[in-house]
Amino acid sequence: MIRTLAAILALSCSALPAHAAPGDTAEAKRLLMDSVGIASVKGRGQTPALARFYRDWLVKAGFNAADIQIDELAGTANFHMVWRAAKAKARPMALTGHLDVVEANPADWERPPFTAIAEQGYIFGRGVQDNKFDVAVLIATLAQLKASGFKPRRDIHLFLSGDEETDGIASAAQAKQAKAFDIEFMLNSDGGGGGLDADGKPYFYRLQAAEKSYADFQMTITDPGGHSSTPTGSNAIARIGLVAARIAGHRWKAEVNDITRASLAEAARQRSDALGQAMARFAANPADADAIAVLRANPGTIGQIGTTCVPTMINGGHAPNALPQRVTLTVNCRIFPGTSIAAVQTELARIAEDPGVTFATGVDWPVTPASPLRPDVTAAVQAAVSARAPGLNATPGMDAGATDSVFWRALGIPSYGVSGLFMRQADSFAHGLNERVPESAIAPALRHWDIILRRLAG
Ligand SMILES: [Zn+2]
């Protein structure tokens, strides 16, 4: 009986102007709460059930079962639906999110993590914020658009991946699948989003258009070793210590793209201190050495102006009375868009100044470029943000990584994180204990996606 209320509303909606606020908050809330009850943690075998739950819901809402595909792979499932335009006037667009959630141990939670509980104005449960909120709202928006008689002028694809939170094997496969559909651009519900201040007033909105890529390098030095009473000139621990110090002290070149330039300029407008002035000067002139020095000295901005690499773990030696035969240093890097992992490894080898260092890395990600700021997408998102909070700018931003968008951008599909969720920082427990969303976030998020879809596909 999920559709009963929607069917009643559909009758009244058809008499409303095109930009009337969507009304069916109760239905989106039900969809969200029911979805939390399916523990779609990779490895638990329930992700395909969540995909089928969404499929059945969409079919009841009038979508064609033949246009929905569920692929079981990599121990999880991917979901895909296409809403076809009768006569397409533009290339297809994609909406994305993920089915899976981070594991949760019930013993640590105050409430059972895989039962949605509405309490004190919030809905609690694992995944209720990341990413089931926006997925439920997206699906409810598509259903409400269909019920209102909306006819897309381009194909709208909905892709939900099965392992965004873990190894991304299904996510990467889904991006390849999307590429074959000639997607013009992608809107990721699992990125970007808004912030509320302590009084619940919106004060920022971030349109995520770039992400750094992530890499761990194991840098190893081996040595014949020997008795600790007869030291040699080449002690592996001493050598790796020097390598670690050189990497920690290295300043990677300052870089900028359209997204970081815009986000630093906007952040600068909101503050008048030395940091704000450095942000403004760097946005105007990315070669300004004084500005670079200030931004590098600040942990909140150093990652916005280039690649960073830091030693994070060290493991070596085998006995207190033996010269070490093997020492491994782990170096974690957050790589600026447009740079390959191989190029970073070459640079690390140069910085190390020790030709005896060998490298291993578990990942081999492609170069992930920033997405160009498309005027149609930025205008649609700005319209949605303005409807929520008049006068508030949708500011482009770069994240430290990584959502599914990295796989799409690597294939040349411009991708934008445009979540409809506005939250207070104090309410955000994604990946943590007692994850929750305010119930009051549902209605504005429905309106957010309604405006964006009408603008870009209407
Ligand atoms: Zn997520």
CATH topology of the largest domain: Aminopeptidase
Tally the structural domains. Answer: 2
Average pLDDT, rounded to a whole number, is: 92
Bound molecules: zinc ion
Query: Percent of residues in beta strands?
Result: 15-25%
Structural Rg: 24 Å
pLDDT below 50 for ≥5 consecutive residues: which ranges? 1-21
Sheet with the most strands: spatial strand order: 1-2-6-3-7-17
Gap from first CA to last CA:
29 Å
User: Which structural class is indicated by helix and strand composition?
Assistant: alpha/beta
Total number of helices? 13
State the CATH class of the largest domain: Alpha Beta
Q: Biggest sheet, open or closed, and with what strands and sense?
A: 6 strands, mixed
Based on CA inertia axes, which overall geometry fits? Answer: globular
- In CATH, the architecture of the largest domain is 3-Layer(aba) Sandwich
Tell how many strands the DSSP assignment holds: 19
Q: What's the helical proportion of residues?
A: 25-40%
CATH H-level superfamily title of the largest domain = Zn peptidases
Description of the structure:
The protein contains 13 helices and 19 strands. It is an alpha/beta fold. It has two domains: 3-211 and 369-457, 3-Layer(aba) Sandwich (Aminopeptidase); 213-361, Alpha-Beta Plaits (2-Layer Sandwich), CATH 3.30.70. Helix 2 (25-36) packs across helix 4 (132-147), helix 7 packs antiparallel against helix 8 and helix 8 (274-284) packs across helix 9. Mean pLDDT is 92; it is low at 1-21.
